[in-house]
Amino acid sequence: MNRIGARHALDLARTGSVALLLIACARASLTTSATTPTASQRAAPPLTQATAEYDAVHYKEAEAIAQAWLADPEEGAAARLTLARVQLATGDYAGAAASARRAWESKKELEQPAKIVAASALSLLGQLTQAEEILGSAARKTGAWEAKRLLAELELQQGHRAKAEPLLQELIEAYNDDRISEHDPIGLTQVGRAADLLRSPQDANEAYNQAEQASEQSSDQLLLWRAQLTLQRHDPDQAAQLLSELLRRAANHPLALALMAQVKLAQGMDFDAAEDLAKRALRINPNLSEARFVLAGVRLRDMDLAGTEEWTKQGLRTNPNDLKLLSLRATAQFLIGDQSGFVQTEQTVLRLNPQFSELYVTVAEYADWEHRYPEVVTLLRRATQIDGDDAQASAGLGLNLIRLGEESEGRSALQHSFAQDPFNVQVYNTLNLFEQVIDKQYTSLQTPPFRLRVAKQEAAILQRYVPTLLNQAWQRLIEFYEFTPENPIGIELYGDHEQFAVRTSGLPNIGIQGVCFGKTLAAVTPADQPLNLGMTLWHELSHVFHIQLSKGRVPRWFTEGLAEYETQVERPEWKRELDLELYRALVMGRMPAALQMNRAFTHAESMEAMAVAYYGSTQLVAFIVQHYGRASVRQMLLLWGQGKPTEEVLTQALGVSGATLDQAFHVFLVQNLSRYEKQFVSIPGSTDPAQVEYAKAREAFASGQPKQCIPIIQDLLTQGHDGFEVQLLLGKCQHRAGEDFDAALTRAHQADETQAEPLEGLWVLARERRDEAAEIAILRKLARLEEHSAEVYRRLLQLLVSTHQIDEALTVGQSAAFVDIEGAQTHALYAQALDLAHRFAQADAEFDSALLCPGEDAERTKIREQFVLSLQRRGLSKQAATRRAQSAANGE
Length: 892
Hints:
The protein has about 900 residues and is an all-alpha fold.
């Protein structure tokens, strides 16, 4: 490794809780092995065995051994120190401080490690001055690297940069002049942490690399700190690997569990897994601040403010000066509009640490979740004002400025962040996207009130349809909401899903197709995946009205449900069909009450569960419109915009309480889904005999044994367990077994006409039989269910044109143009229908669109010939000759 030189001004570390930074450090002077004690270890001297038990997170065993030796005249002090370490790890911070003090008072040789434990414990109680007093003399000693680093962190927690910097520089200089050897894993780990605190992540990473190379096994402390380093720079997968390594040898390590909970949130907002991990950590250390921070944060995502306050309050009882928990309290106050409470908590935090920019970063993170995008920028500006070198704050500011359309300033903020920390994955990806992709491959189109950004290769086709659709939606939504949003509205269309993901999140993998940031929206195009672009844009543009009208305070369930409702009102085929999944959620008790509907999104365990969350919210909005009038939704948005809580919004806008609304909505759902009450509906995990048999049948089918599946299903039918799912599975098994299957699929369709899968099977059969009449009948139904399937619309349009059902072809073609906006054959078929209807200007436009779409030369030649023939039939020989000449010039 090159010699280290701290490259950035020193500032408060924000890479984890005090617990993570301090409890872990107390382990450094213990035996580095953290495996379960072997037989030889158990035969070793008792305190050695206690250390091994401690390292394996067998705290009760370690404590019992230590307690047994407290009275020993020779080993009592060492036993007291071991006990102190156990108390520190299990949350008895006051006991740990007292035990450590007695240890060094009894035996001078233990003063250094005991004072580190005592200072760590006092710090976790918020007693920083007392912790500093204890560490003062210990940190002044030669070679006391851990004490120096810990004292520096205590100074940083109070915003004392000038005092912390020399202490951290001592570690850097000790490495540079070889007082900390390249063969000293403990010292190198401390150097890595010092470099991280000095905001030199590359040097930190290199020091950690050397620490790993110098030891047969990475220490707990190294793995924890390195996981933090990667997690803060938005590489949760790497953090997960590091923590998994630690948890494999110490499965109940409380700090590793708490940090893994953060990883689960960063990887995919897996709230249930995060809660489980955090609660496991608290069972070992009931006062672990990091775990409480996770649990309070999950409640805040759900807007369960009482739950947030309870977890926060519990943590603050242990440490009333916990900056991260105070920041969460400030966040809750900010989100509910308690301005005086927010200011009071803000002043408390800044009094404790004037440089704690993480306060605003934390509030901004949750404000972003609640669509408060302009306020996010304001908060992050404050963060950068009190700490201009906070790379995370600069990164957030840059990303959010870009989301609001302020790209020049946003990119400058990202470049500033990158100069401070070139390892932030979000920043690197976003800058790379702009510099290497957007600047070179995309173009902007000004179509007021919209500002479009599209890939140059897609621009010609997209600008023929997108502005028209957007203007139609804009006028429709203005009329309904009686409101004109602040504009221009940025519309960004990405032909590559990874580019879209990086643009919207800074990371390459997200499972959505569109997103709205209040004044800017982005979506993928069908160039990358099957997608109804018209439906997606209408949905996202609806969010612009919801977010701006409510000043960003609209709950997620309402804006998503309302946007879905808007699309299906505009076009009935733009409707999701998830009645069966919604019924299953209702039966299983997974439909939250209206005031907790956000939980359906935050606790969705799969993409199917997320789809049900969208659909359930849509049904709730539809119920509100049906029973209270469409104007009520506008009133609700206005009331949220005034800062009123949801319960009050419901009372004022609808005249009912949340409980009354829930009861009425439940009745509404039961009535709408009543067809399933007499059917067999599978319930995962059920021990009911029929459910068990159905699960066996599904397993047999999945394992490639359809003939074993069929008799099980037939037995179920004999017992009266009939319904969509049973008939569908029977049909699929019969198909795979080579038997006739159309009767079963027909019965499945009759049992539930909202399901596409039986129709898809029947369509395959109709095509095999070349029964075009049956195909058309099936595709008419499928087109109402498969709003994103270009293949369905293309084939239906083809059959309608070939059978001269022109009026219907015109209707289908209008929808197909957005389902398959870049499909040359679809546009050509629609052009033929328009031509046969004598709507020649539109036909010519669709032929031109077809020729602008990507496609093979042979397909392009065929389309151009169709266009030429159309022109000739109309007597437009000159235009036909021009088109034929163009074809020849293009080598077609």
